[in-house]
């Protein structure tokens, strides 16, 4: 909007100069004066993209008719945008040449135009007022704008650095807490399981202790990966070398649940086909979280795991029966299904969880593949 107003103002000023109200009367017909004024306004409006048309029009209008408004505005833009010092020096040299041509034209036309452009004192005054001062003003405003932009960019960089530092400190604090508390407790579980395996008097107890130790060691490995990610945004090298779980690892996960007494049955439906690794990993996590909840809340309840390969989606369904006997539930934070829903929805899928008639529970996910 401001460039529209600038164009209107330049048109009005140029028309006033052409009429002799603010300069030398041009003696041109009114239609020609209106055309020149309109062209000046259009060039001023276009200056938001390029001010060179305004400079060319200003040079011609000043040299031939002493119409100074377009050259004055072009000089301001030159001071604000041209590189220093060569660009400014080249522009001032061109303006001196324009003033020289204007002096020659003024001598040919005589009268007021000769007085303004051909006499040395008036010529220097016009050069200072129309060219020198606008260039100086453009230089000053350009420096102010440039300094303000640099200050804003510096403040933005500092803000980003402070935010990154705060995030890094918080991640390090969480990593320390997880290492000092969770890793320590899981390490004790692994040690006790190993001791029980060695001292067990029967084979069944030894197998159960070995299973607990293996699960604990796997949990410690996963925990090390998580701690590495927390301490470094790029993640540890070990996490990059160890492939994330996919559906190929699902049988091993189910065997771990079977080993502690849960009857888990897997059903694959449809034609198995390769899908994206993120989809397989998410499907694995759905089954893992569902089985974890069975361990916590349903104990020895029978569980059915369905993997369905659809035309455009991979569907995962985990349905468990009611527990056969009441048992003490293990403590939980209550965030497992919330995080699982976020993971599925990030891939454009949907997650449905609901209690079943008879005391069972259903976890069903549909993931676009």
CATH topology call of the domain at 246-369: Heat Shock Protein 90
DSSP helical segment count: 12
Query: Helical residue percent?
Result: 55-70%
**Looking across the biggest beta sheet, what order are the strands in?**
1-2-3-5-4
**Uncertain runs with pLDDT below 50, 5 residues or more?**
235-241
Secondary-structure element series? HHHHHHHHHHEHEEHEE
Q: CATH superfamily assignment of the domain at 246-369?
A: Histidine kinase-like ATPase, C-terminal domain
What coarse outline follows from CA principal-axis ratios?
elongated
Given helix and strand content, the structural type is alpha+beta
Cα end-to-end separation? 49 Å
Question: How much beta, percentage-wise?
Answer: 5-15%
Work out the radius of gyration.
40 Å
Describe, in plain words, how this protein is organized in 3D.
- Among the domains are: 2-118, no CATH class; 246-369, Histidine kinase-like ATPase, C-terminal domain (Heat Shock Protein 90), CATH 3.30.565.10.
- Helices cover 67% and strands 9% of the residues.
- The protein has twelve helices and five strands.
- The protein has helices at 2-18, 30-46, 52-65, 69-81, 86-109, 111-117, 120-199, 203-231, 237-241, 250-259, 277-297, 336-346; strands at residues 264-269, 303-309, 313-320, 350-355, 361-368.
- The chain has a five-stranded mixed sheet, covered by helices on one side.
- Strand 4 (350-355) and strand 5 (361-368) form a beta hairpin.
- The protein is elongated, with a radius of gyration of 40 Å.
- 24% of the residues are buried.
């Amino acid at each position: 909007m401001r460039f529209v107003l600038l164009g209107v103002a330049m048109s009005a000023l140029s028309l006033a100069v052409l009429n002799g109200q603010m300069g030398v009367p041009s003696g041109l017909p009114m239609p020609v004066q209106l055309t020149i004024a309109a062209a000046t306004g259009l060039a001023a409006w276009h200056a938001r993209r390029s001010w060179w048309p305004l400079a060319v029009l200003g040079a011609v209008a000043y040299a031939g008719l002493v119409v100074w408004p377009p050259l004055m505005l072009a000089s301001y833009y030159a001071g604000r945008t041209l590189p220093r010092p060569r660009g400014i020096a080249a522009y001032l040299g061109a303006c001196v040449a324009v003033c020289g041509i204007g002096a020659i034209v003024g001598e040919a036309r005589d009268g007021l135009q000769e007085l303004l452009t051909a006499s040395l004192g008036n010529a220097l005054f016009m050069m200072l007022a129309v060219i020198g001062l606008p260039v100086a003003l453009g230089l000053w405003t350009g420096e102010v704008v440039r300094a303000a932009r640099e200050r804003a960019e510096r403040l933005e960089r500092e803000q980003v650095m402070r935010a990154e530092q705060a995030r890094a400190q918080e991640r390090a604090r969480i990593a320390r807490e997880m290492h000092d508390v969770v890793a320590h407790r899981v390490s004790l579980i692994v040690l006790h399981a190993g001791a029980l395996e060695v001292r067990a008097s029967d084979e069944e107890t030894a197998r159960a202790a070995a299973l607990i130790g293996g699960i604990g060691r796997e949990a410690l490995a996963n925990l090390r990966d998580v701690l590495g990610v927390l301490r470094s945004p790029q993640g540890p090298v070990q996490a990059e070398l160890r492939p994330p779980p996919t559906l190929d690892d699902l049988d091993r996960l189910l065997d771990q649940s079977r080993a502690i007494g849960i009857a888990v049955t897997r059903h694959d439906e449809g034609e198995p086909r390769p899908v994206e690794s993120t989809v397989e990993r998410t499907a694995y996590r759905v089954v893992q979280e569902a089985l974890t909840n069975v361990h916590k809340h349903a104990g020895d309840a029978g569980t059915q795991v369905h993997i369905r390969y659809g035309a455009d989606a991979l569907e995962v369904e985990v349905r468990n029966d009611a527990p056969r006997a009441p048992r003490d539930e293990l403590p939980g934070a209550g965030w497992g299904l919330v995080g699982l829903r976020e993971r599925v929805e990030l891939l454009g899928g949907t997650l449905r969880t609901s209690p079943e008639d008879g005391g069972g529970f259903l976890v069903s996910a549909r993931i676009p593949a």
